[in-house]
Design goal:
Strand content: under 5%
Radius of gyration: 29 Å
Helix content: over 70%
Largest sheet: none
Distance between the termini: 78 Å
Shape: globular
C-alpha cells in the first residue's frame, strides 16, 4: 500500500506543478517571449517523465516491440515517398487551376512557358492548396488506418500468435493499446511527411494559423477514432480481410447516412447542435459544410467533433479490451464448438449440396450450374466471400436497396415528367452514365474482392496442396475460379442488365451500342478477375492481395494521366493537336471503366457533337483493346505461374 501511495503522491505533485505552470503561462501573456518559451520548455520537461511512465504502464512491451518491427518494414519508406510525390502532384494540379486564362485550352503549357501568378492571387492560391491538403490528408487517414490497424488482432488469430500473447502475463489493455499505438505511430510518421510542403506554403501567406491547428486536430481525432473502431472490429472478426472490409463499409455508411439524413435536422434555432445533430457531429463533410456557411462557428464545430470522436474512441477501446479473450476463445476452440460448448460462431453457414430426389423418384434432383464438374461446383456454390456481421449486413442491404430504389424512382419520375421524345432520350442517357456507371463500379469492386482471395484462401486454409493432388488440370482450376469470380456478382449483373434495358427502351442508348457496351463490360470484368487472381497467386495474405488489387486498378486508370503529363508538351510542340486530344480522351473515356462504359453507351444525338468521334468513341474503343490485351497477358502469366509453382505436367 505504501508503494501505491508514494506513486500516487508523485503523480499528484507532478500534475499540480504542471497545472500551476500552465495556468501561469496562459495568464501572464505580458512576459517577454524568451521567458515564455523557457517556461514552456520547463513544462514539457516536467510532463515528459510522467507521460512516459503512463505510456509504459498502459501499453507494455508490445508497443516498443511492434514499433521496432514495423520500422524495419521496407514498404514504409516507399509509402512515405509515394505520399510526398502525391502531395507535390496535388500542388501542381492546384497550380494548374490558378494559371492565367490563356492557358485554359492547354493546361500543360506551364511546363514549357514562363507563367507566374499575379501578386494579389498568391494568398488565395495558398489557402486553396491548404484546404486541398487537409482534404487529402483526411482521405489518406480514412484509407490507410483500417488497412494497417484492421489486421492487428485478427492477423495474429489467423497465424496463431495471439494464443502465445494470451498465455503470457500481458494484460488485455496492454495488447490492445500496444498494437494500436504502434500502428498509429506509423501513420503519424507518414502524415509528418507533408510538413515540409506545408511549411513552404506558409511563406506565401493567406493561411490562418488557427485553421491550421484545427485541421490537424481534426485529423488526429479522426485517426484515433478510426483506429479504435478498426481494433475493435479486428477483435470481433476472425480474418483480417473481413475486419478491414467491415470498417470500410461502416465508414462509408456513416458518411452517407449522416450526410443525407441528419444534416437538415442537425441544428437548433440558435445554430447549435440539436439532438439529431450529434450523430453527424463526427462527419467531416458536414463539419466542413457548416464551416463554409459560418466561419465564426469553428470552436463550436471543433468541440462537437472532439466530443463525438473522443467518446467513440473510448467506447471502442473498452469493447476491444473487454472482448479480446472471449472472442479469441470462441474462434480458437473448434473442438468445443463441435461438442456443443461455447458461443455460437459468427460466419457464413456451410454450403448445402443440391437437393436429392424424394423417395420413390417422384421428383427429380434440382440441378445447378457446374454440377457435372466438381471444381466448378465448389467455386460456384461452395466458396464464400467476406464474412460480414449480421447487423452490418442488414444495414448494408438496407442502404443498397435504398440507393437502388432512389435510382429507379428518379428514372421513372424523370421519364414521366418529360413529354418530348428528344428530351426523354437525353435524360435517360444522362441517367445511364451516372447510375449505370455507379453500378458497374460496385460490380467490379465485388469481382476484385472475390478474385483477390481465390488462391490466398486456399493457402491460408492449407487446402491448396490437397487440391493439387486431384487429377484436375491447371487450366480447369483457373477456369473454375475465374467463373466463380463472375458468378459472385450475378445478382448485381442482372440489375445492371435491367437498367440498360430500360435505357434502350426509352431511347437513351442506341441499339447499335448494345454490343459495344456488352463487350466492354465483359472485358472489364475479365480483366478485374484476372488481375485479382494473378495477385492472389503471387501473395500469401488475402488482405495484402486485396489491397494490391485495388491499388493496381486505380494505378492503371491513373497511368494515362502520368503518360499524358510527359507526352502532351511534346505533342503540342510538334503541333500534333489531334493526337493530343485523343490522348486526353484516352485518359478519361478509355482507361476509367465507368467512363469507358458511358462513352460506349452513346445515342444518336451524340454524333451531332463535332468532337465526339475522335475524343470519346475512338479512345473508348482503344481503351477496350488495351484492357483486352492486358487480360490475355494476365491469363498467360497465371498459367505459367501456377504451372511453375505446382510443377505439374498436363496430361
Amino acid at each position: 500500500m505504501s508503494e501505491r501511495v508514494r506513486i500516487l503522491g508523485q503523480w499528484l505533485l507532478g500534475l499540480a506543478l504542471a497545472g500551476g505552470l500552465t495556468f501561469g503561462l496562459l495568464r501572464l501573456d505580458r512576459l517577454p517571449l524568451g521567458v515564455r518559451l523557457a517556461g514552456w520548455a520547463v513544462l514539457a520537461g516536467l510532463l515528459s517523465y510522467p507521460l512516459w511512465r503512463l505510456m509504459t504502464r498502459l501499453c507494455g512491451p508490445i508497443l516498443f516491440y511492434d514499433m521496432v518491427r514495423g520500422a524495419r518494414n521496407p514498404r514504409l519508406p516507399l509509402l512515405r515517398i509515394g505520399y510526398a510525390i502525391l502531395l507535390l502532384v496535388v500542388l501542381f494540379l492546384v497550380y494548374l487551376k490558378w494559371t492565367p486564362a490563356h492557358l485554359a485550352r492547354d493546361p500543360f503549357a506551364v511546363l514549357y512557358l514562363e507563367t507566374t501568378l499575379p501578386p494579389g492571387e498568391i494568398a488565395a492560391f495558398a489557402s486553396s492548396f491548404f484546404m486541398t491538403f487537409l482534404g487529402l490528408q483526411l482521405v489518406v487517414v480514412l484509407l490507410l488506418t483500417p488497412a494497417l490497424v484492421g489486421g492487428a488482432i485478427s492477423g495474429d488469430k489467423q497465424t496463431g500468435a495471439l494464443d502465445f500473447l494470451l498465455t503470457s502475463d500481458l494484460r488485455s489493455h496492454e495488447i490492445i493499446l500496444g498494437k494500436l499505438g504502434s500502428r498509429l505511430a506509423t501513420l503519424l510518421l507518414l502524415l509528418l511527411t507533408g510538413l515540409p510542403v506545408l511549411g513552404f506554403l506558409q511563406l506565401l501567406g493567406g493561411v490562418d494559423p488557427n485553421l491550421v491547428l484545427a485541421g490537424f486536430a481534426c485529423t488526429l481525432l479522426t485517426l484515433l477514432s478510426i483506429g479504435a473502431v478498426s481494433i475493435a472490429t479486428s477483435v470481433m472478426l476472425p480474418r483480417p480481410r473481413d475486419a478491414v472490409s467491415t470498417v470500410y463499409i461502416m465508414i462509408v455508411g456513416y458518411l452517407m447516412l449522416t450526410g443525407m439524413c441528419c444534416t437538415p435536422f442537425s441544428l437548433s434555432a440558435a445554430g447549435r447542435l440539436g439532438l439529431l445533430g450529434w450523430p453527424s457531429a463526427g462527419n467531416f463533410l458536414t463539419a466542413w459544410a457548416r464551416f463554409s456557411e459560418d466561419p465564426t462557428a469553428l470552436p463550436e464545430i471543433l468541440r462537437g467533433y472532439a466530443i463525438f470522436h473522443g467518446v467513440l474512441t473510448v467506447v471502442c477501446l473498452l469493447i476491444a479490451i473487454r472482448q479480446l479473450r472471449p472472442r479469441t476463445y470462441v474462434y480458437s476452440a473448434p473442438a468445443r464448438r463441435r461438442h456443443g460448448g461455447g458461443r455460437r460462431p459468427v460466419g457464413p453457414p456451410p454450403p448445402r449440396p443440391w437437393s436429392a430426389p424424394r423417395a420413390g423418384g417422384r421428383y427429380r434432383a434440382r440441378r445447378w450450374i457446374g454440377d457435372t464438374a466438381p471444381m466448378m461446383w465448389k467455386e460456384l456454390h461452395g466458396e464464400f466471400g467476406i464474412a460480414i456481421p449480421p447487423l452490418l449486413w442488414a444495414m448494408l442491404v438496407i442502404a443498397g436497396s435504398s440507393a437502388l430504389g432512389l435510382m429507379v424512382l428518379t428514372f421513372f419520375c424523370g421519364v414521366a415528367m418529360i413529354r418530348s421524345g428528344k428530351e426523354v432520350s437525353e435524360f435517360a442517357n444522362i441517367w445511364m452514365r451516372i447510375c449505370c456507371g455507379a453500378m458497374a463500379t460496385v460490380i467490379l469492386l465485388g469481382i476484385a474482392l472475390r478474385a483477390a482471395g481465390t488462391f490466398t484462401r486456399e493457402k491460408e486454409r492449407q487446402t491448396l496442396d490437397s487440391l493439387l493432388t486431384t487429377p484436375l488440370r491447371d487450366e480447369e482450376i483457373l477456369l473454375a475460379k475465374w467463373m466463380g469470380c463472375l458468378w459472385s456478382v450475378r445478382v448485381l449483373g442482372i440489375l445492371l442488365l435491367l437498367m440498360y434495358t430500360a435505357v434502350v427502351l426509352t431511347g437513351g442508348m442506341c441499339p447499335f451500342a448494345v454490343p459495344l457496351v456488352a463487350l466492354g463490360a465483359l472485358v472489364h470484368a475479365a480483366f478485374t478477375a484476372n488481375l485479382g487472381m494473378y495477385i492472389s497467386l503471387r501473395t500469401t495474405s488475402t488482405l495484402r492481395a486485396t489491397a494490391l488489387t485495388i491499388v493496381a486498378l486505380i494505378g492503371i486508370s491513373a497511368a494515362a494521366w502520368v503518360l499524358g503529363l510527359f507526352l502532351s508538351p511534346f505533342l503540342i510542340f510538334f503541333k500534333s493537336y489531334r493526337l493530343n486530344e485523343g490522348l486526353q480522351g484516352l485518359q478519361i473515356w478509355g482507361l476509367i471503366p465507368p467512363c469507358n462504359l458511358s462513352a460506349l453507351g452513346f445515342y444518336l444525338e451524340d454524333f451531332k457533337e463535332p468532337h465526339f468521334l475522335h475524343q470519346r468513341l475512338i479512345p473508348a474503343l482503344a481503351g477496350i483493346a488495351i484492357y483486352a490485351l492486358l487480360t490475355g497477358l494476365l491469363w498467360l502469366g497465371m498459367r505459367r505461374r501456377l504451372h511453375r509453382e505446382t510443377g505439374r505436367v498436363a496430361a
